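[audit] Reproducing an earlier prediction to check determinism. Same input, same settings, fresh worker. If the tokens differ from the archived copy the diff job will pick it up downstream; this log only records the rerun itself.
[audit] input (150 residues):
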Amino acid sequence: MRIVSNQEFRVFSSSSPALAFLLPIPPSINHQYATVNGRRVLSSKGRAYKVQVYQELLLYLTRDGHRRPAWLDDSHAHIFSLTLRFYFATPLRRDIDGGIKITQDAICEALGVNDNRIVELHVYKRRDPVQPRVECTLSPIIPDSDLLSG
């Protein structure tokens, strides 16, 4: 797993109420889970990725000049859109969907957001052999009336 240094972990959009940040590429789906006593569990690489995301987000949100969005403190009252832009070194070696679940789970756990509050997901696959990464944007959204009924 390639580690994104603290210097690379930065906001790439500061003009909206969205929280935008960079993460390293997660381990491949083949390295995210292990079978232990007949049960599928998160592998050590998967656990390490989640810890890294937690640490990076904590550093980012407490760093001087970065304010924690107010909506994060009341996340149970919001629903969210999550955008993930995966930049792979070689795009044909990885499926677009292999990193979604672990990345979404790691972000939500680190921010204290229940992942069932994500009601809109945008995923893109790009190539960057120099700096593989995931560009992430979490935004509160105004719900459709049909989403709230029932």
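[audit] rerun output stored. Observation attached for the diff report: Residues 44-62 form the longest helix (19 residues).
[audit] end
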